[in-house]
Design goal:
Shape: globular
Protein name: MFS general substrate transporter
CATH architecture: Up-down Bundle
CATH topology: Growth Hormone, Chain: A
Radius of gyration: 23 Å
CATH class: Mainly Alpha
GO cellular component, one term: membrane
Number of domains: 1
Keywords: Membrane, Transmembrane, Transmembrane helix, Transport
Number of helices: 19
Largest sheet: 2 strands, antiparallel
Pfam families: MFS_1 (PF07690)
Helix content: over 70%
Structural class: mainly alpha
Strand order of the largest sheet: 1-2
Order of helices and strands: EEHHHHHHHHHHHHHHHHHHH
Number of strands: 2
Main location: membrane
Strand content: under 5%
CATH superfamily: MFS general substrate transporter like domains
Length: about 500
């Protein structure tokens, strides 16, 4: 790698009391190492935390809305939607949930390219505002076919959001800063899933207002909230650190150079190369990318199944009231947030990824039998805790696993799209595994979830063998991992 920074020509910016920018002479840095040595550890830590507050919190809050809008069907279902739109006939509810993923999967790949050209602010905020309008429209549908059509459009719009956020975050942080940040990002989203049931129960109380059913107000009010968050996100989102069009003042040019130098030292790909379809698509020849995708897809099989059916299982499978079923969704997601941050902290501290995924799978595998094969309702509800905690904690764990072991902007963009695309496949499976005819135990669906976790364990084992073998070859000087001359090694 040429250590000469492309941003050596940049200028150091300061701000006077009026908030206007003053430009000094350019910093005299010859190499990335010079930049890193110019900052004390305390200064670097403060800058990273500033980025956390601006970037991670912004995309995390926007992801809250994404998950809430994607999974509020289950709340609306038991609030009267299934009865009014006759969704219990011929698996209509399952169809409405899964059609979202048809377009969600297809539009992953172009979205990860588009975000580089439109910029995160225009792309992420724009699609968020658009799907907020779609959500509002879902509150006025007259039949299940119209609802399914809007879900298809929702899939197109949301396709670019999650992989775009994963890709954007990966450009700002070095490899062993990522797991905690991904955990906070997804934790904020999980809080939306936790609170969505309580919010939906409150919105249900608008039953009859303006002549609309309570379930319709769930979509209308959450759609309005989405549009508001999109507008706020437009002003808060920041561009890629290497972009010449910087839209922020919370970092000076000198501090931005530090961020780029840290990424360069860690994996040597801070500045994006020119886009070309050949290197972008050739990433598909790397089998480990498909391993990450399988792990993520099998993880989302469980997370989506729980998100779409937990209130229904609590209501129809365990006998809780409608209100209790809505509110009892929150505690498992809160505990999932605690576990995912704890594993994220441990992963970054000890530089491990695969063992944490295995641990989370085991937690999930303990919980699944409790739900389907134990009589006591309290123990079954505890099983839901374990399933929710284990499966959701593996979302950021898998994101960090793939981000730590892929180099190159467009290869990481391809990997992010593949990862989340398989997440959509998991969503399709998760939409179908729990069937009404399997009440009250849903054992076929639970067997499918158990199988998904066993597949994850097999893939982690295979990747671990490959990574250890390649790392040893790299130490002997026989292999340049990921084409890097900087001593890049896989994270086990």
């Amino acid at each position: 790698m040429n250590e000469k920074s492309d941003l050596d020509k940049g200028h150091t910016s300061h701000h006077n009391g009026n908030g206007t920018s003053l430009v000094d002479s350019p910093p005299k840095y010859s190499t990335d190492e010079d930049i890193l040595n110019d900052f004390s550890p305390a200064e670097t830590k403060a800058i990273i935390h500033r980025i956390d507050r601006r970037l991670v919190v912004t995309v995390g809050l926007m992801y809250c809305i994404s998950l809430m809008d994607r999974t509020n069907l289950s709340a609306a279902a038991i609030a009267g939607m299934n009865k009014e739109l006759k969704l219990s006939v011929n698996l209509r509810y399952n169809i409405v949930t899964l059609v979202f993923f048809t377009t969600y999967i297809v539009f992953q790949f172009p979205s990860t390219v588009i975000i580089r050209y439109l910029g995160p602010r225009n792309h992420l905020a724009g699609i968020t505002f658009a799907w907020g309008l779609v959500m509002i429209g879902m509150g006025f549908v007259k039949d299940w076919g119209s609802l399914a059509a809007l879900r298809i459009i929702l899939g197109i719009l949301e396709a670019g959001f999650f992989p775009g956020c994963v890709y954007l975050l990966s450009t700002w942080y070095s490899r062993y800063d990522m797991h905690k940040r991904y955990s906070v990002f997804y934790f904020l989203g999980s809080m939306a899933s936790a609170l969505a049931g309580i919010l939906a129960y409150g919105l249900m109380q608008m039953q009859g207002l303006q002549g609309y059913s309570g379930w319709r107000w769930i979509f209308i009010m959450e759609g309005i909230l989405t549009c508001v968050v999109a507008i706020l996100g437009y002003f808060a989102l920041v561009n890629f650190p290497d972009s010449p069009k910087r839209n922020w003042k919370f970092l000076t040019d000198r501090e931005t150079q530090l961020i780029i130098a840290r990424v360069n030292k860690d994996r040597g790909d801070a500045v994006a190369e020119a886009f070309s379809w050949k290197p972008f698509l050739s990433a598909g020849l790397d089998w480990k990318i498909w391993g990450f995708a399988w792990i993520f897809g099998m993880t989302t099989t469980v997370t989506y199944a729980i998100a779409y059916f937990m209130p229904i299982i609590l209501r129809n499978g365990m006998g809780f009231s409608i209100g209790a079923s809505q509110c009892l969704v929150a505690p498992p997601y809160f505990c999932a947030g605690l576990l995912m941050y704890a594993t994220g902290w441990a992963g970054d501290k000890w530089h491990i990824r695969g063992p944490l995924i295995v641990f989370n799978c085991i937690v999930c595998l303990i919980g699944l039998p409790l739900v389907g094969w134990v009589e006591n309702v309290g123990v079954r509800y505890f099983g839901i805790f374990l399933i929710t905690m284990g499966a959701n904690s593996n979302i950021p764990a898998t994101m960090a696993y793939q981000a730590n072991n892929i180099r190159g902007h467009w290869k990481r963009a391809f990997c992010s799209a593949t990862l989340v695309g398989f997440g959509g496949v998991g969503g399709i499976i998760g939409s179908l595994v729990f069937r009404e005819k399997d009440l009250p135990r849903y054992r076929p669906g639970l067997w499918a979830c158990i199988a998904s976790q066993l597949i994850i364990l097999v893939w982690v084992a295979a990747l671990t063998v490959k990574f250890k073998k390649d790392n040893k070859a790299s130490e002997r000087g026989e292999l340049e991992i990921e084409g890097s001359e900087t001593g890049f090694k896989y994270t086990i």
